[in-house]
Amino acid sequence: MGFLPREAGGAGACGGLTGCASPPGPGAAGATSRGLCAGGAPSLSYQQLKDLKKTSVLHIDVRERWEIDRSGKIPASINIPLGELVEALQMDPTEFKERYNQKMPSKSDPVVFSCLAGTRSKQALGFAMSLGFSRVQQYAGGFEDWIKHEPPETK
C-alpha cells in the first residue's frame, strides 16, 4: 500500500493509529468479520466497502456538511462531521435517531468511516476506538477514490 495524500490541515493529526482496535491473532476484536478490523488491513478498498455496504454496516462520512452539499456523498452513508462525532457516538439513542435519521450503532456494530481522502476518517477511527467501538474500519481512499469508480449521490 502506498501513501495517500493528506487532506488540508490534517498534518500529524492521526497520532500513529493503525486502524485496528486489537492486535492480530486469536481473540482479536472483529476477528470473525474479515473486512472489519482485520489485523493487517487498516483500510478498506473501494470493492471491500462496496461489498460491506450490502450488509448491515453503518457508513459515516465525517466531512463537513458544506462538502456534502457541494460535492455529493457516497450512497447510503450518513453525515456526522468529525467535530460532532465524539458527542454523537455518546448520545442517547433516541436523540441520535432524531438528529441523524439512523439507528445509533452499538459498540459491537460494524461501522465504517470515510472523508475526502483519509485523514479525518483515520481520526474518526481513533475516536471511536477510544470510546470502545470494536468493529470499526476506515475507507482511506474516501470520496476522492469512490468517485473514480462511480458517481456520488447528490440531493
Report a brief summary of the structure:
This protein is an alpha/beta fold.
Written overview of the protein:
With 155 residues, the chain is of the alpha/beta class. It has six helices and four strands; from the N terminus they run H-E-H-E-H-H-E-H-E-H. Strands 2-1-3-4 form a four-stranded parallel β-sheet, with helices on one face. Helix 2 links the parallel strand 1 (58-61) and strand 2 (77-79). It is globular. Residues 1-41 have low confidence and may be disordered.
How do the strands and helices of this protein lay out in sequence?
Blueprint lengths: L45 H7 L5 E4 L3 H7 L5 E3 L2 H7 L4 H8 L10 E4 L4 H12 L5 E4 L2 H8 L6
Parallel strand pairs: 1-2, 1-3, 3-4
Low-confidence stretches: 1-41
> Averaged pLDDT, please?
79
Alpha-carbon distance between the two ends: 34 Å
How big is the Rg? 14 Å
Major sheet, described briefly? Answer: 4 strands, parallel
Helix content: 25-40%
Helix and strand run: HEHEHHEHEH
The strand order across the widest sheet is: 2-1-3-4
Q: Indicate the structural class.
A: alpha/beta
- Strand proportion: 5-15%
What gross morphology would you assign?
A: globular
Q: Count up the helices.
A: 6
Tell how many strands the DSSP assignment holds: 4
